[in-house]
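User: structure tokens for this one?
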Amino acid sequence: MKSFYKLLLLILIIPSAHAEDISDTKYAKNVCDYGPNSRTAVGCAIKRFKVVEKLLNKQYKKSHRELNSIKKSCDKYSSNKCNKYVDIKQLHIKSQRSWIKFRENECKAIETWYRNGKLQKQLYYDCMRTIAERRIDDFKKFTGYQT
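Assistant:
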């Protein structure tokens, strides 16, 4: 059981190293230290999650602004290709809603696995943060738009 716990922590920590190339999310690690006890560790995980969640929402809005600006410039020329941007935006909204459900279920599974554990909430918020960092990177690749 301990080896599984160590493996799970590695899974959560290794993707965080990937976050180094996500411009603003790397400073989420500087928000706080996990500290010597579970209470401070959970509090820190929540703070780090909130920082990345703000950045995620910011990047999501930027991706929509990018799609809107493409649509506006396209409309000036009355191109039939403009219709695809309306479809893309609707699919983007739909995929984000599905992603939110996926992330919640994925992290609740981790939290449930460690039911009654002292670090249960820390693992949940670390999971939420790590998956959000990946999503920010996905948004940037989607539109090529950087924060």
